[in-house]
Design goal:
Elements (H helix, E strand, L loop, with lengths): L1 H9 L1 H17 L1 H30 L2 H50 L8 H19 L1 H29 L10
Helix pairs in contact: 2-3, 2-6, 3-4, 4-5, 4-6, 5-6
Length: 178
C-alpha cells in the first residue's frame, strides 16, 4: 500500500494547483465555467458518436449505428437544453428543502410541549430551510450559480489542502497508513 501512497503523493502538488486554478475560475466566472462544462460534455458525447458512426459505417453494424446516433442526439440535447434542464433542478431541490423545513418546524412545535427540551434550534433550522427552499424555487438559475460558486470555493480549499499535505508529507519514505 505504500506504493499507492507514493503515487498519490507524487501528484498531490499538481492536483492542488489544478484544483485552485479551476476553483478560482468557477468562483469568479460561474457562467463561463458552466458553459465550458456544457461544451466539454457535449463535445465528448459528439466525439464518441462520430467514432462509433465511423466504425458502424466501416464494419456495417446497425447496432453500433444506433448507438452512434444516440450519442450524437444526446450531445445536441445537452448543447441546446443544458440551461433549462439545469434551472429545473433547483426548483425540485427547493421543493424538497421546503418540505424538510416544514417538517422541522412541525417537529419543533411538538418539542415545545416538553419543558426540558429547547425547541428554538430546530425551529430556527426549519425556518432557514424554508427560506433557502423558497430562494431556490423563485431564483433557480441564480441559486444554481451560487451553488456553482460555492463548489468553486470548495475546490480552492481542497487545492490548498492538497498543497499543504504535499509539503507536509514530501519527506516521508516508509508509509504504513493504509
Amino acid at each position: 500500500m505504500s506504493s499507492l501512497f507514493k503515487t498519490v503523493q507524487q501528484h498531490a502538488l499538481l492536483r492542488g494547483i489544478v484544483y485552485i486554478v479551476l476553483g478560482v475560475f468557477i468562483f469568479l466566472k460561474p457562467n463561463d465555467a458552466f458553459n465550458v462544462i456544457v461544451y466539454l460534455i457535449s463535445a465528448y458525447n459528439a466525439i464518441i458518436g462520430i467514432v462509433k458512426l465511423v466504425n458502424a459505417i466501416k464494419y456495417k453494424e446497425n447496432s453500433t449505428m444506433a448507438i452512434a446516433i444516440f450519442y450524437l442526439v444526446f450531445a445536441l440535447i445537452i448543447l441546446l437544453f443544458a440551461k433549462p434542464l439545469a434551472s429545473i433542478l433547483p426548483v425540485f431541490l427547493g421543493l424538497i428543502i421546503i418540505f424538510g423545513g416544514v417538517v422541522r418546524v412541525s417537529q419543533s412545535m411538538t418539542l415545545k410541549k416538553y419543558v426540558d427540551v429547547s425547541y428554538l434550534p430546530m425551529m430556527f433550522y426549519g425556518i432557514i430551510l424554508i427560506l433557502a427552499g423558497v430562494l431556490l424555487l423563485f431564483k433557480p438559475f441564480a441559486s444554481l450559480i451560487m451553488l456553482f460558486q460555492f463548489l468553486g470555493a470548495l475546490m480552492v480549499f481542497s487545492g490548498i489542502s492538497e498543497i499543504i499535505n504535499a509539503i507536509r508529507y514530501r519527506n516521508i519514505k516508509d508509509v504504513d497508513i493504509f
